[in-house]
Amino acid sequence: MPAKLLKGADVAKEIRAELKTEVENLQAQHGVVPGLVTILVGENPASQSYVRGKQKTAHELGFYSIQDNQPADLSEEKLLQLVDQYNKDPKIHGILVQLPLPKHINENRVLLAIDPSKDVDAFHPVNVGKLLIGEPDYLPCTPAGIQELLIRSGTEISGAEVVVVGRSNIVGKPIAAMLMQKAKSANATVTVCHTRTKDVKFHTTRADILIVAAGVKEYVTGDMIKPGAVVIDVGVNDVGVTADGKRILKGDVAFEAAAEIASAITPVPGGVGPMTITMLMKNTVRACKVHNNIKD
Ligand code: NAP
Q: Is residue 92 part of a domain?
């Protein structure tokens, strides 16, 4: 396997160590502790597992953290009241509502109700708009994790041909917007592919940096990759469970074949996933500073 493995899990560990020191300093010098609430409605097993991961990391970093589990039949009105309660809670700096929400709840209404200064997922239209004009307060966690992974692996982003497969609001669109900015660690030429793209392979084989967030198991095959490209596989596809109940995951890229052609590639699991959680923690530390008028 000639490709270098971009181990997000290792990079995430490094960043978490930096954050832990920052949290200790915030407490020692300013008497404040970052506070994060994760709200989970219902019992979707994948969501439960994501939320557990976020809470575990928050505890490890010394945050004040609340896991607020609500029943699947919680009304939209009750959820909005809950969000409002945390908007007003001075000990909480970051509010995360785990998606997807049950069908009877309008996700957009709920996301709009979160105070943008506590929106550590950066899904609120105010934060999306600020990102687009190049003045973000918070970066969305998965795209921020991807960019950080590229930076820390020494990948040249400026001037690179970047191809993103997928145009969702949480991955494809924001990572495209971030990497095309006239800014440090950006300045790429970005192409975005989706289900109406006529010839996806035409684009992917031109990519110096290929970011795949399609949600289709092993969609990108070896022949779709330019030799020497850096491949970021965002996909997380459940393909079964182990005898001891652990999820078996595959990415959106056919890993073995891709690793023969790319110069660097993220594994699944252990690539983008751990970076996403870490960026959530980074945003929460930032939110704590914003709410306490503490400069970086
Ligand atoms: P999504 O909302 O389902 O969006 C998928 C996007 O991919 C859509 O824009 C879709 O195009 C495009 N697409 C699907 N099939 C395609 C195909 N055959 N050719 C070209 N484009 C195609 O997914 P998402 O929320 O962005 O997530 C994508 C994947 O990343 C999922 O596996 C998800 O679990 C994973 N994920 C991982 C993390 C992490 O932290 N590791 C975080 C978020 C998501 P259309 O717009 O035309 O439908």
A: yes
Q: Ligand 1, atom 41: nearest CA belongs to which residue?
A: 273
Q: 215: CA distance to ligand 1 center in Å? A: 4
Residue 16 lies in a domain: no
Structure tokens at 93: 């700096």
Given a cut of 90, whether residue 212 has pLDDT beyond it is: yes
CATH code for position 263: 3.40.50.720
Domains: count for the chain: 2
Spell out the alpha helix ranges (H) of the chain: 8-30, 45-60, 76-88, 107-113, 125-132, 141-152, 172-180, 200-204, 255-261, 272-291
Q: Please, which pLDDT band fits residue 46 given cuts at 50, 70 and 90?
A: confident
What residues form DSSP beta bridges with 66? Answer: 37
Name the nearest CA neighbour of 282 among 14, 40, 4, 87. Answer: 14
- Relative to beta strand 94-97, strand 64-70 is unpaired
pLDDT tens figures, 265-291: 999 999 999 999 999 999 999 999 999
- Give the percent of the chain with pLDDT over 90: 96
Using alpha carbons, select from 231, 229, 142 the residue that is nearest to residue 178.
Answer: 142
165 lines ligand 1 (CB under 6 A): yes
Protein residue closest via CA to atom 31 of ligand 1: 215
Task: Verify whether ligand 1 is closer than 6 Å to residue 276 (CB atom).
Answer: yes
Task: Write the single-letter amino acid at 148.
Answer: E
The answer to whether the beta carbons of residues 26 and 288 sit under 8 Å apart is yes
